[in-house]
């Protein structure tokens, strides 16, 4: 050991046996290794520090690189999310059906009643109430409310429960639009991603608008517009503070906070929201107290769904839009389209009331009523039956019921247009057997209850009393083919055969066709194709369909006026509609029709053409009382529907003349036959020229027609005025 130490001191290796001289290079290397530091004290003291600083710098550099990479990753992720499209959300929109005044009469949807409106059509109270209770810092955060999360954690820890949530409106919207409500980390991650994308792609107002149109308010109502209509029967823009605060509280628990289910819970939630609004400064405490005390006018739940009003009309529109116009059923139920119809709500209410009052509630007798504006073809009212919940069959379009004598005006119009017959053409009312088909067949009609005048009568008398013998004589002279051709011109497409019984309405015709045909008479011979749908718009307001006004002059105006004048006699003394003349305080023309199982009254004013049918679905025979129910329904409806419309006379066109005639002789009334004279209308040139006493002066005056037409209008107006005054 000592030896080894000696060798190290002397520079020799302990294992060396002999000393070997070093080379110059080896000496130099040895000298270099043994060279002491230049600054031994500085190196000794600072080296540990410098060494630690270097390690720290290396670590800082690594941390900086990591932070940079993280920032790049975040920026890249945000950029990626910015350029990526959000998933397609299949939000269904409730379609609406509106009446002529713009009121919603029906909605179409699957299981989601939804109607979107822009933010400027939502009450500011709704916006304030929603933000106050759901996300008061909505306009200050970027989709995630960190302060709200922290506050929720503190509150929940203090209460040892999830008493307060922290989801923002954007998060709720993302969840409702694109995700389920399952509680998994995967869903939460997706929610965060979609929340970020929503904030990137849309402004705050757009997000708020989507939220208010998406959120569920209970009872199938999605969105504030549907909720406002369902609960209060008003638009979202019309909601006041109290209504807004109550609706804003429902989405938290639609079943628990629905006023239909639990009014106390709904009011408690409303109070919480009003207090939050007052605390936030959007309203005063006095306003909050007044709103809470307000008695809210809730609509009954059944009424809010639109049940009961014009159900047959609503079914018809749906069938027409899908079946006739070719719209897809899914677009109707999910596309948010708006169907603007011609239904007049006042006329519809009058129709439903007239039918309800016209037949005893315990009767199984059915009824149908259809009313059309002859001037534009608008379908104003429709009642297809008396028990829609149990029977949705719309009898307005039934082509299985015989119109009976209500068809006769079609026959007489064909006769007048041939210029072979006039209102003074006479046939004898008595039992008659007619031969047709070149003598091979016979036909023997009967008057109602076998009542005959057994004397000659003219066309006005035949129409007023509904004489069947006169009608068959007319069709034998005019030709059944010509009558069918006239029916087609008037819009009656039902199957008919050219036989004598056609004159008595033995071939079924729908009430819809009858009302349309009589509307042509009311409209001076111009047939306007009936219209029930005016236009259809998509959810953006773009027009998808617009009805075309189709009209055609199918009957000369003068002939239409003459047949109208003749049908006015139905409501005069002795006419088949005389029993209801006191109910109708305006000029009206029409025709009754009665078979063993059907009763009709088809008539019109200048503003409304109406067909009323009563009977039994299975063709059961009518009693006398049951057969008399059509006319009162017609009269009640006409007056109710036109209650706010001043009475008007039918305008007399050019080509019509009038003259006083003697009904017994069918000649002009002269000095010797003035007691029973009657003012009659004619197509110019068809009036009689010979008087009953042979007075040429009277014949000349009648031939001119101008003075008589003015006299007829004056007399007609005076008679109508007296009738309106006395009634």
Description:
This protein is of the alpha+beta class and 727 residues long. Helices cover 44% and strands 12% of the residues. The chain has 27 helices and 21 strands. It has a five-stranded mixed sheet with strand order 2-1-5-13-14. Helix 18 (408-417) crosses helix 23. The longest helix is centred in the N-terminal third of the chain and has 44 residues, at 40-83. Residues 1-19, 160-164, 696-710 and 721-727 have low confidence and may be disordered.
Helix content: 40-55%
Order of strands side by side in the largest beta sheet? 2-1-5-13-14
Compute the average pLDDT.
Answer: 83
- What low-confidence regions span 5 or more consecutive residues with pLDDT below 50? 1-19, 160-164, 696-710, 721-727
Task: Output the number of helix runs.
Answer: 27
Number of strands: 21
Q: Sheet with the most strands?
A: 5 strands, mixed
Strand content: 5-15%
Gyration radius, in Å? 46 Å
Overall, the morphology is elongated
The end-to-end span amounts to: 151 Å
* Secondary-structure-derived class: alpha+beta
SSE blueprint:
Layout: H1 2-10, H2 24-33, H3 40-83, E1 95-98, E2 104-108, E3 113-114, H4 124-134, H5 146-159, H6 169-178, H7 185-201, H8 204-214, E4 221-222, H9 224-232, H10 241-249, H11 254-257, H12 263-280, H13 285-293, H14 301-304, H15 311-324, H16 329-334, E5 338-341, H17 345-358, E6 366-372, E7 379-383, H18 408-417, E8 427-428, E9 434-436, E10 441-443, E11 456-457, H19 459-465, H20 468-478, H21 480-489, H22 511-522, E12 526-528, E13 533-537, E14 543-546, E15 551-553, H23 557-568, E16 589-594, E17 598-604, E18 609-615, H24 624-627, H25 630-641, E19 656-662, E20 667-668, E21 678-683, H26 696-704, H27 706-726
Parallel strand pairs: 1-5, 3-4
Antiparallel strand pairs: 1-2, 5-13, 6-7, 6-18, 8-11, 9-10, 12-15, 13-14, 16-17, 17-18, 19-20, 19-21
Helix pairs in contact: 4-10, 4-12, 6-7, 6-8, 10-12, 12-13, 17-25, 18-20, 18-21, 18-23
């Amino acid at each position: 050991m000592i030896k080894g130490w000696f060798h190290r001191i002397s520079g020799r290796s302990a294992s060396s046996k002999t000393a070997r001289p070093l080379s110059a290079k080896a000496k130099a290397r040895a000298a270099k290794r043994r060279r002491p530091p230049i600054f031994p004290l500085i190196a000794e003291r600072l080296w540990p520090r410098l060494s630690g600083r270097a390690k720290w710098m290396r670590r800082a550099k690594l941390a900086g690189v990591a932070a940079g990479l993280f920032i790049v990753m975040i920026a890249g992720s945000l950029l990626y999310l910015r350029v990526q499209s959000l998933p397609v959300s299949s939000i269904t929109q409730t379609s609406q059906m509106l009446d002529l005044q713009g009121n919603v009469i029906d909605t179409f949807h699957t299981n989601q009643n939804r109607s979107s409106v822009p933010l400027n059509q939502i009450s500011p109270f709704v916006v304030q109430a929603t933000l106050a209770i759901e996300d008061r810092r909505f306009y200050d955060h970027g989709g995630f409310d960190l302060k709200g999360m922290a506050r929720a954690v503190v509150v929940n820890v203090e209460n040892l429960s999830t008493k307060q949530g922290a989801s923002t409106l954007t998060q709720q919207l993302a969840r409702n639009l694109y995700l389920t409500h399952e509680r998994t980390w995967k869903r939460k991650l997706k929610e965060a991603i979609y929340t970020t994308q929503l904030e990137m792609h849309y402004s705050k107002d757009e997000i708020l608008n989507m939220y208010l149109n998406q959120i569920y308010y209970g009872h199938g109502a999605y969105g504030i517009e549907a909720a406002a209509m369902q609960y209060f029967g008003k638009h979202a823009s019309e909601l006041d503070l109290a209504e807004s605060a109550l609706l804003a509280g429902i989405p938290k628990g639609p079943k628990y906070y629905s006023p239909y289910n639990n009014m106390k819970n709904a009011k408690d939630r409303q109070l919480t929201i009003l207090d939050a609004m007052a605390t936030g400064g959007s309203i005063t405490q006095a306003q909050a107290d007044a709103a809470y005390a307000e008695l809210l006018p809730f609509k009954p739940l059944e009424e809010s769904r639109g049940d009961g009003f014009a159900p047959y009309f609503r079914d018809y529109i749906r069938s027409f839009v899908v079946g006739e116009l070719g719209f897809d059923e899914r677009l109707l139920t999910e596309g948010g389209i708006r169907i603007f119809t011609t239904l007049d709500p006042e006329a519809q209410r009058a129709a439903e009331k007239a039918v309800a009052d016209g037949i005893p509630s315990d009767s199984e007798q059915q009824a149908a009523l259809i009313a059309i504006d002859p001037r534009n073809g608008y379908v104003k009212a429709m009642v297809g039956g008396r028990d829609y919940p149990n029977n949705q069959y719309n009898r307005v379009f039934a082509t299985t019921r015989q119109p009976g004598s209500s068809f006769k005006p079609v026959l007489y119009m064909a006769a007048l247009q041939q210029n072979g017959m006039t209102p003074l053409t006479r046939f004898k009312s008595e039992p008659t057997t007619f031969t047709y088909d070149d003598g091979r067949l016979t036909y023997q009609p009967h008057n109602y209850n076998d009542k005959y005048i057994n004397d000659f009568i003219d066309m006005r008398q035949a129409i007023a009393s509904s004489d069947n013998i006169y009608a068959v004589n007319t069709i034998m002279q005019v030709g059944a083919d010509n009558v069918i051709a006239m029916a087609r011109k008037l819009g009656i497409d039902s199957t008919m055969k050219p036989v004598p019984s056609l004159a008595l309405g033995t071939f079924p015709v729908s009430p819809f066709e009858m009302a349309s045909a009589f509307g042509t008479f009311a409209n001076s011979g111009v047939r306007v194709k009936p219209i029930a749908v005016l236009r259809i718009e998509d959810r953006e307001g773009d027009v998808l369909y617009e009805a075309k006004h189709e009209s055609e002059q199918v009957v000369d105006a003068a002939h239409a006026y003459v047949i109208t004048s003749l049908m006015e006699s139905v409501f005069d003394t002795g006419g088949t509609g005389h029993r209801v003349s006191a109910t109708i305080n305006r000029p009206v023309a029409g025709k009754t029709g009665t078979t063993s199982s059907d009763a009709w009254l088809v008539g019109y004013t200048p503003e409304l053409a109406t067909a009323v049918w009563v009977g039994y679905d299975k063709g059961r025979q009518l009693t006398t009382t049951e057969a008399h129910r059509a006319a009162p329904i017609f009269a009640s409806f006409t007056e109710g529907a036109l209650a706010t419309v001043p009475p008007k006379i039918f305008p007399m066109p050019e080509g019509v003349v009038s003259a006083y005639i003697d009904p017994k002789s069918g000649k002009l009334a002269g000095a010797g036959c003035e007691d029973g004279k009657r003012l009659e209308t004619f197509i110019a040139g068809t009036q009689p020229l010979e008087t009953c006493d042979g007075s040429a002066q009277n014949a000349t005056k009648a031939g001119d027609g101008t003075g008589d037409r003015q006299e007829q209008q004056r007399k007609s107006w005076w008679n109508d005025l007296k009738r309106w005054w006395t009634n």
